[in-house]
Amino acid sequence: MSDPTLQQMARHDRVRRGGARRGPLLGVAMAVVLASGAGWWGYNAWSGDGPERDPDVVAATERLQSFLDAWAAGEAAKAGALSDSPRTAESLLTSVMTNLKPTGAKLTAGDGKKDDQGKVVVPYTARFTVPAVGEFRYESEAALTGKAGKWVVEFGSPMVHPRLVPGKTLALKAVAKRAAVLDANGDDLQAASLRGSVDEQGKGTFGLEARYDKQLRGGGGAATSEVVIADRQSGEAEASLTKSSAKPGTPVRTTIDPKVQGAAAAAMEGLEVNAALIALEPSTGNVLAVSSRPAGGINRALAGRYPPGSTFKVVTAAAMLKAGMKPSDVVACPKFTRVDGQRFENQNQFTLPAGSTFKDSFAKSCNTMFVENRAKAGGSALHDMAEAFGIGGEWDVGDVTYDGSVPVTTSDNDLAASTIGQARVQASPLVMASIAATVKEGTFKQPVLVPGAVKKKHEATARLDPSVTGALREMMRATVTYGAGSALTGIPGEPHAKTGTAEFGEEKPPRTHAWMIGYQGDSDLAWCVMLEDGGSGGADAGPVAARFLKNLT
C-alpha cells in the first residue's frame, strides 16, 4: 500500500541545514497501520513581539506561524507555498497528516533569533491529538531566509520532526493487535454474517466483532498504537516516538464447524430473498453453522422473530401425544374447518382420504386435523410443552438471540391458530433448529455459540417422555419418506424433517415464510432453513435444505 502523497511531484527531500540529501518519496506500506480520524485544526498562538524585537525576526516568525497554521489545518499545498521547496513540503506534510489523521493539531511558533548568516531560526511546539495514541507533542525548529516581507521557510525533514531524515515519515503502528474471531478449530471464522466487520478505526460494527469489541481490541484502556518513524517506501517502522503499554486483544472462539459452515454458505448462494440457515449438534447444543442473508444488521438465524407455521406442529404433536394420541390413530383431514366463524384450511385446500392417520396428517402437514384436535393441546398444555423444548426461557448462547414465545392461549381461536404455529407463536430459526435437535437427542440442550462467554445455560422446566420423542422421530421420518419433505428423499443420512409455510401480514392471499427443520438419523446434526417471504416450506425451503445436506456428503 503506498503513501497517498504526491509521489510524482516529489523527487527529493532536502535538509537545508547540514547539507542536502536525495531519496524517493514513496508511500507507507502495509507494515504500518494508518489510523483514521475526523479532521485537523490549528490556531495561531503566536503572541506577537515586544517593542525591542528585530523587525526581520518578527516578519520571519509571522511567516513560520502562517506555515504552521496551514499545516495544522491539513492544507499542505498552502504550507508548501510558504517554503523554498513547495512540492517537497506538500508531499511530506500530506504524508504525515494522512498517516496520523489527527483529530486536533496545534503548532505554535516561539521566539526566533537571527544567526550569524542572517537567517532567522524559530523554535516551535507541535501538539497533535492522534486516535489510539492520545497527545503527541514535540519541539522542533525552522530556519527562514530572506528579507522583511519576503521570508521563506527552509524546508527539510528535520524541520517537520527533529528525528526525521529524507525518505522517512511519521506514521502509526498498532501495538495492541486486534485478535480474531475463531471457529471451533482455532482458525479465523469464515462466516461474514456472524463474524461481522470492523471499521477504519478498528472498531467492530456488527456481529461478533461488535459484541466482543473490547475483548478483541485489547489495550486495557491504554493507547493501542504508537507514533513511529517509518520508511516511506517499505512502510517499515524504524523507531517509536511514543510508548504504549497496551495489551493485545484476546481471541473469541466459537463452536462453528468450518465444514458445516461452508456447506451452509454454499446452500444459500443464489437466493434472492432474506434467509437463514443454522445447524446444531444435538448432543451438546453447540452451534455448528450460522448463515444469515443479507449480512449486516440483525442476524436472522439467531435473532429473527417469525411465526414458525407448521414446523411448530412438532411441539403441538408432542402435546397431543402426551395427551394420549398415537401416530396410528385414524383422524380426519378435511379441506377446511371453522372455529367460531374463523376459517382454517390446508395449503391449496388438499384433503386426505378416509382412514388416514395422525402420522399421515403430520407428514402431509394437515392444518385442519391439528385444529380439530386442538382440545388435546388446550389450557396451558401447548405452553407447557413448549417449555419442555426450552422455549420461553432466557438462553445464554454467547450472542444476541430470540428464544421464542408461546403464550398460554386465551381463546378457542387463539388455541386453534397456535396449534399450527400462527397467532402469537413466535420463534427464531435458532429455536426451530433446537426443536429438531431436542427430538433427536430426547432432551433439550441449550444452544451454545461462544462457550467462553456462557455463564449459565437455560434448563427446560419440563422433561419429554421417551415415548413422545420416539413417536415424533417416526413422524418426522415419514415427512421425508412420503410427506411434504420429499425434497430430502434419497439424501444419505436418514434425514427427518418437518416443513412449514407460515402466513404473515394482512394481504390476501397472505404472504408466507418458508421453513424446514430436521435432523440426520445417522449423525449428530440438526438444522433449520427459513426463507423470509419465501413461499412454501416443502417447495422452497426444502431444496435449500437438500443442498445443505448434499454439500456435507
UniProtKB/TrEMBL annotation:
Cellular component aspect of the GO annotation: plasma membrane
InterPro entries found in the cross-reference section: Beta-lactam/transpept, Beta-lactam/transpept-like, MecA_N, PCN-bd_Tpept
Protein's GO biological process: cell wall organization; response to antibiotic
Domain (NTF2-like N-terminal transpeptidase): residue spans on this chain: 60-167
GO MF assignments: penicillin binding; peptidoglycan L,D-transpeptidase activity
Domain Penicillin-binding protein transpeptidase: 277-549
Residue ranges of the TM segments: 24-43
Annotated signal peptide: none
Domain of life: Bacteria
Pfam family, one: MecA_N
Keywords noted in UniProt: Membrane, Transmembrane, Transmembrane helix
Protein name as it appears in the record: Penicillin-binding transpeptidase domain-containing protein
Species of the source: Streptomyces sp. NBC_00148
